[in-house]
Amino acid sequence: MTQFAVVFRGYDRAQVDEFAARADDDLASAEPTRVARARADAQAVSFRVVLRGYNQQQVDHYLRRVAKGHPG
């Protein structure tokens, strides 16, 4: 599972964890339709900003990697 630093204001941890678990599973499957879905979802997803959330820069970097088809 991908790890992100917790910061004072960051992306909602539950939303990011749910997305990352699904995206990592899709990319690991190597099934073209699942990989394509993960890539498309990474480009379209948005997360709430909350107190004690995940570091936004780290999550954004992860999303760019997923969008290119690379695992987190």
Plain-language structure description:
It is a single chain. The model has no long low-confidence stretch (mean pLDDT 95). This protein has helices at 13-29, 32-44, 56-67, and strands at residues 6-11, 49-54. It has one domain. Helices cover 58% and strands 17% of the residues. α1 (13-29) packs antiparallel against α2 (32-44). It is of the alpha+beta class and 72 residues long. The chain contains three helices and two strands; from the N terminus they run βααβα. The radius of gyration is 12 Å and the shape is elongated. It comes from Dactylosporangium matsuzakiense.
Radius of gyration: 12 Å
**Cα separation of the termini:** 8 Å
Query: What is the H/E string?
Result: EHHEH
Structural class: alpha+beta
Number of helices: 3
Helix content estimate: 55-70%
* Beta-strand percentage range: 15-25%
Low-confidence stretches: none
Main sheet characteristics: 2 strands, antiparallel
What general outline do the C-alpha atoms trace?
elongated
The spatial strand order of the largest sheet comes to 1-2
Nearest-integer average pLDDT: 95
Per DSSP E runs of 2 or more residues, the count of β-strands stands at 2
Please give the domain count. 1
